[in-house]
Design goal:
mainly beta, three-stranded antiparallel β-sheet, Jelly Rolls, 189 residues
Length: 189
Protein backbone atom coordinates (compact mmCIF):
# COMPACT_ATOMS: atom_id res chain seq x y z
CA UNK A 1 0.00 0.00 0.00
CA UNK A 2 1.21 3.53 -0.80
CA UNK A 3 0.90 5.40 2.52
CA UNK A 4 0.82 9.16 2.88
CA UNK A 5 3.79 10.30 4.96
CA UNK A 6 3.12 11.93 8.35
CA UNK A 7 4.12 15.59 8.62
CA UNK A 8 4.25 18.40 11.15
CA UNK A 9 3.43 22.10 10.93
CA UNK A 10 4.62 24.90 13.19
CA UNK A 11 2.00 27.25 14.61
CA UNK A 12 2.52 30.41 16.63
CA UNK A 13 -0.62 30.19 18.78
CA UNK A 14 0.01 33.54 20.49
CA UNK A 15 -0.15 35.29 17.10
CA UNK A 16 -2.48 32.82 15.38
CA UNK A 17 -0.07 32.12 12.54
CA UNK A 18 0.76 28.97 10.58
CA UNK A 19 4.41 29.13 9.58
CA UNK A 20 5.10 28.48 5.89
CA UNK A 21 1.59 27.44 4.80
CA UNK A 22 1.37 25.67 1.45
CA UNK A 23 -1.97 27.38 0.73
CA UNK A 24 -2.72 30.99 1.62
CA UNK A 25 -6.10 32.40 0.55
CA UNK A 26 -6.71 36.14 0.87
CA UNK A 27 -10.24 37.55 0.46
CA UNK A 28 -10.41 41.30 -0.10
CA UNK A 29 -13.52 43.49 -0.01
CA UNK A 30 -13.89 43.09 -3.80
CA UNK A 31 -14.36 39.32 -3.38
CA UNK A 32 -17.22 39.90 -0.90
CA UNK A 33 -19.73 41.44 -3.33
CA UNK A 34 -23.21 40.11 -2.65
CA UNK A 35 -22.48 39.16 0.96
CA UNK A 36 -23.14 42.48 2.72
CA UNK A 37 -26.53 44.23 2.90
CA UNK A 38 -25.14 47.66 1.97
CA UNK A 39 -23.65 47.16 -1.52
CA UNK A 40 -22.90 50.89 -1.92
CA UNK A 41 -20.88 50.95 1.32
CA UNK A 42 -18.90 47.92 0.09
CA UNK A 43 -18.15 49.64 -3.22
CA UNK A 44 -16.89 52.74 -1.34
CA UNK A 45 -14.62 50.50 0.73
CA UNK A 46 -13.28 48.81 -2.42
CA UNK A 47 -12.62 52.21 -4.05
CA UNK A 48 -10.82 53.38 -0.89
CA UNK A 49 -8.22 50.60 -1.07
CA UNK A 50 -9.97 47.20 -1.22
CA UNK A 51 -8.91 46.01 2.27
CA UNK A 52 -8.48 42.37 3.25
CA UNK A 53 -11.50 40.88 5.04
CA UNK A 54 -10.09 37.44 5.84
CA UNK A 55 -7.26 35.01 5.21
CA UNK A 56 -6.93 31.23 5.40
CA UNK A 57 -3.66 29.25 5.75
CA UNK A 58 -3.58 25.46 5.18
CA UNK A 59 -1.34 22.53 4.47
CA UNK A 60 -2.70 20.25 1.74
CA UNK A 61 -3.95 16.75 2.40
CA UNK A 62 -5.75 14.47 -0.07
CA UNK A 63 -9.46 15.15 -0.67
CA UNK A 64 -10.31 11.67 0.56
CA UNK A 65 -12.28 9.97 3.34
CA UNK A 66 -10.14 9.39 6.41
CA UNK A 67 -7.96 12.47 5.83
CA UNK A 68 -8.25 15.59 8.02
CA UNK A 69 -7.80 19.15 6.74
CA UNK A 70 -6.71 21.82 9.19
CA UNK A 71 -5.64 25.42 9.14
CA UNK A 72 -5.77 28.91 10.55
CA UNK A 73 -8.50 31.40 9.63
CA UNK A 74 -8.10 35.13 10.34
CA UNK A 75 -11.01 37.55 9.96
CA UNK A 76 -9.97 41.18 10.23
CA UNK A 77 -11.86 43.87 12.17
CA UNK A 78 -14.01 46.40 10.36
CA UNK A 79 -17.52 47.12 9.14
CA UNK A 80 -19.37 47.61 5.86
CA UNK A 81 -22.32 49.94 6.42
CA UNK A 82 -22.30 48.91 10.09
CA UNK A 83 -22.16 45.17 9.29
CA UNK A 84 -19.14 43.42 10.81
CA UNK A 85 -16.45 41.93 8.56
CA UNK A 86 -17.12 38.25 7.94
CA UNK A 87 -16.14 35.25 5.86
CA UNK A 88 -18.23 34.23 2.85
CA UNK A 89 -19.57 31.21 4.68
CA UNK A 90 -20.17 27.76 3.27
CA UNK A 91 -21.85 24.41 3.55
CA UNK A 92 -19.65 21.39 2.99
CA UNK A 93 -19.91 19.84 -0.47
CA UNK A 94 -20.33 16.53 1.37
CA UNK A 95 -23.13 17.83 3.62
CA UNK A 96 -22.95 15.14 6.30
CA UNK A 97 -19.47 16.25 7.44
CA UNK A 98 -18.70 18.31 10.55
CA UNK A 99 -16.03 20.87 11.47
CA UNK A 100 -14.35 21.97 14.70
CA UNK A 101 -13.03 25.48 15.42
CA UNK A 102 -10.79 26.60 18.30
CA UNK A 103 -10.67 30.32 19.10
CA UNK A 104 -7.07 31.57 19.35
CA UNK A 105 -7.38 35.36 19.35
CA UNK A 106 -9.97 38.12 19.13
CA UNK A 107 -13.71 38.03 19.55
CA UNK A 108 -16.70 37.39 17.36
CA UNK A 109 -19.21 34.75 16.45
CA UNK A 110 -19.61 31.68 14.30
CA UNK A 111 -23.00 31.97 12.56
CA UNK A 112 -24.51 28.64 11.55
CA UNK A 113 -27.64 27.87 9.52
CA UNK A 114 -29.56 24.99 8.02
CA UNK A 115 -31.16 24.85 4.57
CA UNK A 116 -34.53 25.25 6.31
CA UNK A 117 -33.39 28.65 7.63
CA UNK A 118 -32.73 27.85 11.29
CA UNK A 119 -29.88 30.12 12.40
CA UNK A 120 -27.81 29.86 15.58
CA UNK A 121 -24.51 31.38 16.67
CA UNK A 122 -21.74 30.62 19.11
CA UNK A 123 -19.32 33.11 20.60
CA UNK A 124 -15.70 33.01 19.43
CA UNK A 125 -13.03 33.85 22.01
CA UNK A 126 -9.59 32.47 22.87
CA UNK A 127 -9.78 28.90 24.17
CA UNK A 128 -13.38 28.29 23.09
CA UNK A 129 -14.10 25.21 20.93
CA UNK A 130 -17.06 25.37 18.56
CA UNK A 131 -18.50 22.25 16.95
CA UNK A 132 -20.33 22.65 13.62
CA UNK A 133 -22.51 19.57 13.09
CA UNK A 134 -23.13 18.03 9.67
CA UNK A 135 -25.60 19.89 7.41
CA UNK A 136 -24.94 23.34 8.95
CA UNK A 137 -23.51 26.22 6.90
CA UNK A 138 -21.11 28.41 8.85
CA UNK A 139 -19.56 31.87 8.68
CA UNK A 140 -17.10 33.69 10.97
CA UNK A 141 -17.94 37.26 12.03
CA UNK A 142 -15.41 39.57 13.75
CA UNK A 143 -17.09 41.87 16.31
CA UNK A 144 -13.87 43.01 17.99
CA UNK A 145 -11.10 45.52 17.40
CA UNK A 146 -8.34 43.00 16.59
CA UNK A 147 -8.09 40.06 14.17
CA UNK A 148 -10.34 37.09 15.01
CA UNK A 149 -8.14 34.02 14.64
CA UNK A 150 -9.19 30.37 14.83
CA UNK A 151 -7.75 26.92 14.22
CA UNK A 152 -10.06 24.51 12.36
CA UNK A 153 -10.23 20.82 11.46
CA UNK A 154 -12.62 19.04 9.08
CA UNK A 155 -12.71 15.83 6.97
CA UNK A 156 -10.44 15.89 3.93
CA UNK A 157 -13.26 14.99 1.55
CA UNK A 158 -15.78 17.55 2.91
CA UNK A 159 -15.15 20.23 0.27
CA UNK A 160 -16.89 23.61 0.18
CA UNK A 161 -20.22 24.76 -1.21
CA UNK A 162 -20.15 28.58 -1.37
CA UNK A 163 -22.81 28.83 -4.08
CA UNK A 164 -25.81 28.11 -1.88
CA UNK A 165 -24.77 30.88 0.55
CA UNK A 166 -24.29 33.30 -2.35
CA UNK A 167 -27.86 32.52 -3.48
CA UNK A 168 -29.59 32.26 -0.07
CA UNK A 169 -27.50 34.42 2.26
CA UNK A 170 -27.83 34.06 6.03
CA UNK A 171 -31.07 34.92 7.87
CA UNK A 172 -29.14 36.98 10.45
CA UNK A 173 -26.70 39.86 10.00
CA UNK A 174 -24.27 41.02 12.70
CA UNK A 175 -24.02 44.80 13.09
CA UNK A 176 -22.05 47.11 15.33
CA UNK A 177 -23.92 50.25 16.35
CA UNK A 178 -22.68 52.62 19.03
CA UNK A 179 -20.07 50.06 20.05
CA UNK A 180 -22.72 47.39 20.67
CA UNK A 181 -23.20 44.17 18.71
CA UNK A 182 -26.67 43.54 17.29
CA UNK A 183 -28.09 40.45 15.59
CA UNK A 184 -30.62 41.53 12.99
CA UNK A 185 -32.96 39.08 11.31
CA UNK A 186 -33.24 39.56 7.56
CA UNK A 187 -35.08 38.01 4.73
CA UNK A 188 -32.95 35.54 2.82
CA UNK A 189 -32.13 36.43 -0.77
Amino acid sequence: MDYMKPFGVDLDLSKGVMKNPATHIVRQASSMRGHYADAAALERLIAAGDPVHYEVAEQPVPDAPGQMRFGISTTLPGTVGGECFMTKGHYHAVPDTAEVYVGLRGQGYLLMKTVEGECLWEEFRPGRVIYVPPFWAHRTVNTGEEPLVSFYVYPGNAGHNYGDIEKQGFPVRVLKRGGKVEFVKTRSK
